[in-house]
Design brief:
By secondary structure, the chain is an all-alpha fold. Among the domains are: 73 residues, no CATH class; 65 residues, Leucine-rich Repeat Variant (Alpha Horseshoe), CATH 1.25.10. The protein is built from 17 helices and no strands. Helix 9 packs parallel to helix 11. The chain is elongated, with a radius of gyration of 28 Å. The protein starts with 14 loop residues before the first helix and ends in a 5-residue tail after the last helix.
Length: 299
């Protein structure tokens, strides 16, 4: 069959369609040197789809149809009725739809339903779904893994690890959501380092993403882990050279001011005053904070 080299299941596969494809394949090969029967054509078609037999292919189509119908039947359940239908949710069937269905809308729907109905049994499938080639599927899977308040019981997952995967995603929307999530775990060194890298990453021109990064460090500077927050702000102040990064310096300097009279914050402000142009807003802001803290502002 020259028109078929390798095949992927259509978005809405059906056994009837597959039977017609097998008949077409048999018809094309009747005129060849090696004509085949219908069962052989079905077997060859199954192999083109990546299945060892026609029976396995048909079983997969039936499973995918069942998963889609099951997911769609719960797609528009009002929030007030979630608990009443929880016992009718078939987690294994939704996992199959999330990982195997050829239609990304169905995969995203199955992953999204895990936000309210997900259990620990769904975690392995969700972890695979965060690697889906379609961004909206990854978004739904990441949200279902990280959002615990909508579930009957929290999932046993390392949320920081989930967000670390998201902040390295090619999709800006996913990176932005992951930065927001990591900002809630800023006491974790992994989160701090990831936000540190994300802040200076040129791909992250989004104001929201950089706001989450700097806001997390500012909050850390005012916490019992203030030394780590001050050090992170100091690193950002040293590397924030382009206009897109410099716009956040005011927020960073304010965070150092909130950490005063911490000696590390004083040293960082002194370095800013010594390094910055005396006409810049950053210089004036840092000098004013130094004057308030020590009575001496440098230059």
């Amino acid at each position: 069959m020259r028109s078929i080299v390798s095949l992927s299941l259509p978005h809405r596969p059906s056994i009837q369609h597959l039977k017609q494809q097998a008949k077409d394949l048999r018809r094309q090969l009747l005129s060849s040197a090696h004509p085949i029967g219908l069962q052989q054509a079905q077997q060859r078609l199954a192999q083109l789809y990546g299945f060892p037999s026609w029976t396995r292919l048909c079983q997969r189509v039936v499973q995918l149809h069942a998963a889609e119908q099951h997911a769609r039947s719960f797609a528009f359940i009002p929030l007030g009725q979630m608990e009443s239908v929880r016992g009718r949710i078939l987690i294994p069937l939704l996992c199959e739809g999330m990982l195997l269905h050829p239609n990304p809308d169905v995969r995203a729907l199955c992953a999204g339903l895990m936000d309210h109905f997900g259990t620990d049994a769904a975690v392995p499938a969700l972890l695979q779904a965060v690697k889906d080639p379609v961004p909206r599927v990854r978004i739904a899977a990441l949200h279902s893994l990280s959002c615990q308040r909508c579930k009957a019981s929290a999932l046993c997952v390392d949320q920081v690890e989930i967000f670390l995967h998201g902040i390295a995603d090619v999709s800006l929307r996913i990176r932005r959501g992951a930065a927001c999530g990591l900002s809630s775990f800023i006491q974790d060194e992994r989160a701090m380092l990831a936000l540190d890298r994300a802040f200076v990453d040129p791909r992250n021109a989004s104001g929201d993403l950089r706001f989450f990064c700097i806001d997390a460090f500012v909050r850390l500077a005012g916490s019992p882990w203030k030394h780590r927050g001050i050090d992170a702000i100091a690193r950002l102040m040293m590397t924030a050279t382009d206009a897109g990064l410099r716009r956040w310096r005011g927020r960073a300097i304010a965070g150092l001011g909130a950490a005063l009279p911490e000696p590390r914050a004083l040293v960082c402000l002194q370095e800013i005053v010594a390094r910055e142009d005396a006409q810049s807003a950053s210089w004036h802001q840092a000098r004013r904070l130094l004057v308030q803290a020590t009575g001496a502002g440098g230059r």
